[in-house]
Amino acid sequence: MVCVSSILTYLSKLKIMIVKRNDLNRLIINDFISNKLPNGYKKHLNDKYVWSLVNELDDKVCYIKTSMGEEKIYLQDKDDVDYSVERINETIENLDAIYKEEELIDKYCSENGWTYSGT
Q1: Chain centroid to CA 64: how far?
Q2: pLDDT attached to residue 118
């Protein structure tokens, strides 16, 4: 039988880890916006691309991995940073599923000539 207190301890540690990861990502994005990080910052997890920060002309942009390619978020204010942090966390939590879905989409597209060839 599993001890309830050990489950609660695990869940609290998991929440602390997620909060720390979110705080770190928010710090990285804010440093990028204030030009403390170089252009082209990329973050990978287990050799899988998760997100990146890019200067596009005069815009600061966050790209986040999706099964259909990338989501592009223009970083103009605090709400954009908060949304980016939230989407990065969702992507990390579902990273394996995102890559698997991308493979299925690519396979479907390659087998069906009427679709675009891959994502």
Answers
A1: 5
A2: 46
Assess contact for 89 and 50: CB atoms under 8 A: no
Cα–Cα–Cα angle for 37, 28, 88, rounded to 5 degrees: 130
- Give the number of C-alpha atoms closer than 13 A to the C-alpha of residue 92, restricted to the C-beta side: 16
- Kindly report each contact of residues 59-63 with a partner whose C-beta sits within 8 Å and lies 24 or more positions away, as own/partner: 60/32, 60/33, 62/29, 62/88
For 107, phi then psi, to 5°, come to: -65, -45
Nearest Cα residue to 29 out of 98, 76, 94? 76
Q: What's the pLDDT at 37?
A: 84
Residue 25 near residue 36, CB atoms below 8 Å: no
Chain position carrying tokens 């954009």 = 80
Residues of the chain with pLDDT under 70: 1-19, 116-119
